[in-house]
Design a protein that fits this description.
Elements: E1 10-16, E2 21-26, H1 34-43, H2 47-54, H3 63-115, H4 117-211, H5 216-310, H6 316-394, H7 401-480
Antiparallel strand pairs: 1-2
Helix pairs in contact: 1-6, 2-7, 3-6, 3-7, 4-5, 4-7, 6-7
Length: 481
Amino acid sequence: MALAVPQEAITDVQFRLGSLYVTFHVTHDEDISQEEMAHRIEEYPFREMWRLYNQRDGAPDGLDAALQRLKDLEMELKDKNRELDKERGDKEQKVNELKKQLQALQEELAGPVAEREQSLLQQLGKEQGARKKAETQLKVVDDERKKLLEAVKQEKLRTEKSAQRHNDLIAAIIQENKKEKEAKEREHNEQMEVKDYIIENLKSQLRTRTNGSASPRNSIIDFDQTEEFNRLMERMEDMAAVLQRTQESENQARAQIQRLSDLLKESEEARQAESVSYDNNVAALTQQIHSYRDTKIAEDHERRAKEDRQRGRGSVSEALKENATIVRQYTTSLENLIVSLQDRLHAISEEYNNYLTEAEAGVSHERQILAEQDEDSKKTRQTFRSSSIALQKIYWGSREPEAQEIIQNLDAAASNAEKSSAAVRVVIAMLDSKARAFGDHRNWMEQQQRMMRELLTSLRDLNQRAFDRQRALMDERVSKA
């Protein structure tokens, strides 16, 4: 380094005295003189190397202190990992013990329940037989009610059809009477026109008779007109009789229409009365069915209670309540146990998460310290390099062995600083790997916690179904007994 020769020019390197002394051969360029080489050696800096050498037995500082701190932290991390593994084993053992306790509790629950199962099944069969008998009776009553409803519905349809026929007949009669009335009105109008014509003709004849002469010819004419007048009068009397008969027929038709309207009104009132009566009958029949069903149920309950009292036993409802109480107690115990397991699992998860958080914070802090030490090492290495170059310039051409040793020591210190920097980077990479491992541990713990929660939920649902089934069997036994 002092002579600025390439690495290929240095051969036969040999270290002695624990790498404190080294010998080697150097091939120099021909254009460099002996004086210039001595001058370069004299200017090469060696004071810092000697200072470091003199402090070799002192307390470590700089990168050495950082490496020592790193070793201590690694030892602490190993101790914590061992403690964590031990605690994890203890927790798994506790979980296994809780599972065994849960299994024992389930076996204990199946014992007393099985003792009453047969009697409950017998009593339930008896209750089901009574219920089927009551359902059969209710079905018969319901069929009768349906038949009555169908009969009432048919009668209602028949009444509606009869009313429709009456309405159609009345409408046809009214239409026919209307046509007949119009025809008679036309005939009456024609007769009135003829009558008016005859009256006018008679008036003109009377005026002619009053103003006419008394000749024989006029007498003959008057005689003829008198006969014609008599015929007209007879015709008018006939027309008056026809008009009177027409008015009488019209009055009769109006009376018939009024009578048919009254009949239609009475039929509508009767239909409404029948509809109200039908609704009342349906309501009364439904009430009778409900009353009959309630009576039968009450009689069955009374009969079963009497039989139970005669056998010296409590009622079925009391036995069912007792079964419900037993199942509820076991369900409550199981729920409390599962809640305790969930709380303990949550506490373990929180504790492990806190440990991982603290470990990640410690690793991050150590990485930051090592990064700062790496920066300081870079600065120290640059200082060694610049000091070596400055000493080479100062002692250039000098043959003093101390100067050469100082320059060599500075170069060696720079090399050691480079090696230490590489070691620090390796340690930083290891810390990054540990940080990623902590993240993987966190994910694994969350996955295990989720699986445990799902397992506890499934266990709760399974036991709840088992308890419900067991209670149903117990109730069935009570019913059959």
